[in-house]
Write a structure and sequence with these properties.
Number of strands: 5
CATH superfamily of the domain at 2-112: Ribonuclease H-like superfamily/Ribonuclease H
CATH class of the domain at 2-112: Alpha Beta
Shape: globular
Helix content: 40-55%
Distance between the termini: 18 Å
Strand order of the largest sheet: 3-2-1-4-5
CATH topology of the domain at 2-112: Nucleotidyltransferase, domain 5
Number of helices: 8
Structural class: alpha/beta
CATH architecture of the domain at 2-112: 2-Layer Sandwich
Order of helices and strands: EEEHHHEHEHHHH
């Protein structure tokens, strides 16, 4: 199972005004790769610099979405789905940017970490800072890198919760634990475990 968490920051109220994008790849419920791009939007007008700190000066010499698309598409290839916190927004930005660039958008399914936080983790409210605070996830809100990473970690937490519940339902009887020495298996230390 693999998915990619995605987050956009936009320059203005138009969905085609992506000025930053971050992707976090998760394979077998472990973060394996991160990508981040500043993007030159189609207009110089910036209305949200006060929120994310990005201005035209930061992106004037950066590639357009169209120029970045091959790298973005390659990063997302093989993903079973895309995840975003408030997925409707990021789905709309991705569609609009592809539309303006006349790029065909692969048919990725989107899953929303805000909905999962509400439905599976029972967290209210479900804005990103509140969910991260409840789960102990570090967050620099409106930094696309931090927001995408937080989304990935929320998805992993929700999976852990549902996986534990289904494992309990699947085995109503006590499970015998075989001592490590009896199996011949040795636990090794791996980075990130």
């Amino acid at each position: 199972m693999s998915f990619v968490a995605i987050d956009f920051e936009t320059a203005d109220r138009s969905f085609d005004s992506a000025c930053a994008m971050a992707l976090v790849k998760v394979e077998n419920w472990q973060i394996t790769e991160r990508g981040y791009w500043l993007i030159r939007p189609p207009r110089e007008r910036f209305r949200f610099t006060h929120i994310h700190g990005i201005s035209w000066k930061n992106v004037a010499d950066q590639p357009t979405f169209s120029e970045l698309w091959p790298s973005i598409r390659d990063f997302m290839s093989g993903a079973s789905f895309l995840a975003a916190h408030n997925a409707d927004f990021d789905r709309s930005v991705l569609r609009a940017c592809c539309g303006v660039a006349r790029l065909s958008l692969p048919k990725w399914r989107f899953r929303c970490s805000a909905r999962l936080a509400r439905r599976v983790l029972k967290i209210y409210p479900t804005n990103l800072p509140a969910v991260c605070a409840r789960l102990g996830i570090p967050l620099k809100h409106h930094d696309a890198r931090s927001d995408a990473e937080a989304c990935a970690r929320i998805m992993i937490a929700a999976h852990g919760r549902t996986h534990r519940k289904s494992a309990v339902r699947a085995r109503p009887h006590p499970v015998a634990v075989i001592p490590e020495a009896a199996t011949g298996l040795v636990q090794r230390d791996f980075p990130g475990w």
